[in-house]
Automatic annotation (TrEMBL):
<dbReference type="InterPro" id="IPR007899">
    <property type="entry name" value="CHAD_dom"/>
</dbReference>
<dbReference type="Pfam" id="PF01928">
    <property type="entry name" value="CYTH"/>
</dbReference>
<dbReference type="Pfam" id="PF05235">
    <property type="entry name" value="CHAD"/>
</dbReference>
<feature type="domain" description="CHAD">
    <location>
        <begin position="222"/>
        <end position="384"/>
    </location>
</feature>
<dbReference type="InterPro" id="IPR023577">
    <property type="entry name" value="CYTH_domain"/>
</dbReference>
<dbReference type="InterPro" id="IPR038186">
    <property type="entry name" value="CHAD_dom_sf"/>
</dbReference>
<dbReference type="InterPro" id="IPR033469">
    <property type="entry name" value="CYTH-like_dom_sf"/>
</dbReference>
<protein>
    <submittedName>
        <fullName>CHAD domain-containing protein</fullName>
    </submittedName>
</protein>
Length: 384
C-alpha cells in the first residue's frame, strides 16, 4: 500500500572538512527544552527512468532505497512552496529494482508505458540529527550526508555499466512536525557557520544529463502560424499529462484542471483543423471528447457535493457515493489501454505536430490564426 505525504527540505553544499554547529544551538528553545537524537545510516538508492529520461524531464524522481527509516520505493513529485515535494512511498519490493505496479501506474502518462530501468545509483553515508521537544515530538531533522553517485547505463548482454563516481558532501534540513519558520532559523545558522547557499535540484541530478529541451522557440508576434499552434498544443499536452498524475494522487482541483486541458486541446484541434493533418488529429479529438465526458461527470459530482455539503438535511452520503463512483470511473479510464493510446498520440503530437505543408502554416500567426478563431466563433453563434 502506497502512502502519500508532503515533504519540505533544503540542501546546502558543505566542504568535506567543515565543522557543523550543534542543531540544538541553532534554535531558540522559547522556554521549552530541546534535545537531539542522533542516528547513522548507509542509504543505497537506485533510481529508475526510461532510456530517454522522461521522468527526469518531468521533474520526477523514482528510486528504490535500502537503509534508514523509510526503506522502499519513493516517487517524488514537485509541489508548491520552497523545497516542497509530494512523496509517494511504497514498501520494498523484490530483487532487481522492478517498479511496483501502483507506482508504474502513477507515472504511465509520463513514460507512455516505456520500460523503466536503473539509470543511477546514489550511496549516502548519513549522520542524522533530530530536534526533539519536551513532549518527544520531532520538529526537524538535519542530515550530514557524504554522497557517492554514479550514472548507470545498459550494458551489452544485460545488466548495467557504471560511470566514474562523483562524490560530495551536503547538509539537508527537513521538517518533521515543526513549521517552516523553523527551517528559516536553522538555515540562517548554517549559513552563518559557512555553508553555501541552498541548492536546487536533487542528488541524482548531479550525475544524470540534463534532458534535451525542445528546440521550439517561444512564440512572439513575428512567429508563424505553425510555430504558435505547435507551442500551444505542446503546452496543453504537458498540462494534461501533469494533471494526470495529480488526479491519480487525488489532488484538489486536479479533475477540473485535467478537464480544462482536454477541452482546450479538443477546441484547438477543431478550430485549427485546416492547418492540421486531419487523419492524425480527428481521432485524437474524438478520444479527448470521450475523456472529457468522464472527467466532466466526476467534476459535476464534486461541485454538487461541495455546494450542498453545509445545507441542513443535505443528502451528503448519497452525494459522496456519487462522487466516489465518478472518481473510480476516472481512474478506470486513466488505467485503460485506450487512454494510453491517446496519451501516446498526444505525446507524438506535441513532439512533432502534424502541420499541413501549405503556405498558411508558414505565414505570420497574426495573419492566420485570428481568422480561424473568428470563423469558429461564427459557427458557434449560428448554432445558438
Amino acid at each position: 500500500m502506497a502512502a502519500v505525504h508532503r515533504e519540505v527540505e533544503r540542501a546546502y553544499p558543505a566542504a568535506p572538512d567543515a565543522d557543523l554547529p550543534a542543531l540544538v544551538d541553532l534554535v531558540p528553545d522559547g522556554g521549552t527544552p530541546l534535545t537531539e537524537s542522533v542516528t547513522t545510516d548507509v542509504l543505497t538508492a537506485t533510481y529508475v527512468d526510461t532510456a530517454d529520461l522522461r521522468l527526469t524531464a518531468a521533474g520526477l524522481t523514482l528510486r528504490d532505497r535500502s537503509g534508514g527509516r523509510d526503506a522502499g520505493w519513493h516517487l517524488k513529485v514537485p509541489a508548491a512552496g520552497r523545497g516542497a515535494r509530494t512523496e509517494v512511498r511504497h514498501p520494498p519490493g523484490g530483487p532487481g529494482h522492478v517498479v511496483p505496479e501502483p507506482l508504474q501506474a502513477l507515472v504511465r502518462a509520463v513514460t507512455t508505458g516505456e520500460p523503466l530501468h536503473p539509470v543511477a545509483e546514489v550511496v549516502t553515508r548519513r549522520r542524522a540529527v533530530r530536534l526533539v521537544d519536551a513532549t518527544g515530538r520531532v520538529l526537524l531533522e538535519l542530515a550530514d550526508d557524504h554522497v557517492t553517485a554514479r550514472r548507470l547505463r545498459p550494458a551489452e548482454g544485460g545488466g548495467s555499466a557504471a560511470s566514474a563516481p562523483v562524490t560530495w558532501r551536503e547538509v539537508e534540513i527537513e521538517l518533521v512536525d515543526g513549521d517552516e519558520d523553523l527551517l528559516d532559523v536553522v538555515e540562517d545558522g548554517l549559513r552563518a557557520a559557512g555553508l553555501g547557499p541552498a541548492r536546487s535540484g536533487t542528488k541524482v541530478g548531479r550525475v544524470l544529463p540534463a534532458p534535451d529541451a525542445p528546440a521550439r522557440a517561444t512564440p512572439d508576434r513575428r512567429s508563424s502560424a505553425g510555430e504558435v499552434l505547435a507551442a500551444y498544443l505542446a503546452a496543453q499536452v504537458h498540462r494534461l499529462v501533469e494533471q494526470d498524475l495529480a488526479v491519480r494522487l487525488d489532488a484538489p482541483d486536479a479533475v477540473h484542471q485535467m478537464r480544462v486541458a482536454a477541452r482546450r486541446l479538443r477546441t484547438a484541434l477543431r478550430t485549427f483543423r485546416p492547418l492540421l493533418d486531419r487523419e492524425v488529429t480527428d481521432p485524437l479529438r474524438d478520444e479527448l471528447r470521450l475523456l472529457g465526458r468522464v472527467l466532466g461527470t466526476a467534476r459535476d459530482a464534486q461541485v454538487l457535493r461541495d455546494r450542498v455539503a453545509d445545507l441542513d438535511e443535505a443528502p451528503v452520503a448519497d452525494l459522496d457515493a456519487r462522487h466516489r463512483t465518478a472518481q473510480e470511473a476516472v481512474l478506470r479510464a486513466l488505467g485503460s489501454t485506450r487512454y494510453l493510446t491517446l496519451v501516446r498520440g498526444l505525446t507524438a503530437l506535441a513532439a512533432d505536430p502534424p502541420l499541413r505543408d501549405r503556405p498558411r502554416t508558414r505565414r505570420r500567426a497574426t495573419r492566420v490564426l485570428p481568422a480561424l478563431v473568428a470563423r469558429r466563433d461564427r459557427k458557434v453563434r449560428r448554432a445558438l
